Every structure is written in structure tokens, then in C-alpha cells.
Request: fold
Amino acid sequence: QVQLVESGGGLVQPGGSLRLSCAVSGSIFSIYTMAWYRQAPGKQRELVALITSGGNLNYTDSVKGRFAISRNSAKNTAYLQMDNLKPEDSAVYYCNAQKEITPRDDYWGQGTQVTVSS
Reply:
């Protein structure tokens, strides 16, 4: 059974940094596109960033230049480095793993809260 375990959320002041981690177990890490989504109260869940097994990257416009997604195959872990955080970045952040081969199953972590406030 595939499991995603997130860590690294918390409370940070505007302009601060956090690094989220997503550890994957129960499957072959290299066949997954890894992504981070976020959901703020009253809003839809949105894609923040993704990284394919080949290293292709995609970011939503609001985080370009501030966030960086990466993956470490030796540790079966994906990361989201978040710098220059803004109050509007406050949300529950979810890790997602989607298989790049059929069947294209996807899996979700439990979510981690990020709060940016002074």
C-alpha cells in the first residue's frame, strides 16, 4: 500500500521560509510525478508545484521565484522549499504522487498546515 507522509509545516512570519517533506513508501518512487497542492479555507485545492520523474518542473504563477520543488530518489522523498512566504500562502499543503504509467493511480498525503502571520 502506497503511503505519503508529510512534515515541515508550521507558523512563520512573512518573509520567512519553510521546507515541506513528503516521504513515499510502498511503491517504486521513480515512476511517480510528485506534486504539492494547497487548500485555503473557502477555496478550491490548487496545484502549487510538480516535478516529474525526469525532472521537469511546473509552478503556479504566484509562487514562481519563491518556491522550489525537488526530489531525492535515494530517500524516496519530495520537498517543497518555500521562501519569502506571504500571508496568502497560508493553507493546508498536500503531497500528491501520480503514477506515470498505467494504471495512473494517484495518492495523497494527510496534509500539513502552513500559516504565515506576524
